[in-house]
Amino acid sequence: MAYALSSIGSEEVDPNTSGSNEAGIETLKKLPENPEAIYQEGRKLAETQSDLNVNETVKFDDRHAFCPKVCNTKTIRYRPTAKEGIEFLQNNSNYRLLLGGSVEGWSYVYPGATVHNYIDYPFGTSGYRNHVIGVGPGGFTVTGSESVLSVIAHETGHRDGISHGSMMNKREYDSIMRSRGQ
Hints:
The chain has 182 residues and is of the alpha+beta class. Helices cover 34% and strands 16% of the residues.
């Protein structure tokens, strides 16, 4: 969910070799009619979390963003429509759909975040332990504006210098930083 952003740049991509993008394709197929409206609801939820410090650095980008394993300003790819995004994922298994991105202090939320987002429990938490011993799920799914809230929390964590899976005092944020979206 958290990668640097840039313009489209070169269109050289790796050919598709597997069905690894099924989740991203399903997300694009399920996009709501007005993702930005759901983003606004999610932003209002995020603004109630004062420690997130949500301000003008958090923005909605109505394009669909994709990135390979090595994601930087030169490898990001954008598609303007869900149809083009689905076609891109069908042809490029090394790329995945991004729900959000962070670069130089700015946080971006993409339309896919308005559908759903799966969040893993981190190692060491009661939720993770319960999952290991067979009690309860290993994570949880948020939808709509709640998914947007989780993406904002994740990306503002990067804005504040927190990496994926950083161990923190507030374990719910550790969980948020471990989530990977689609």
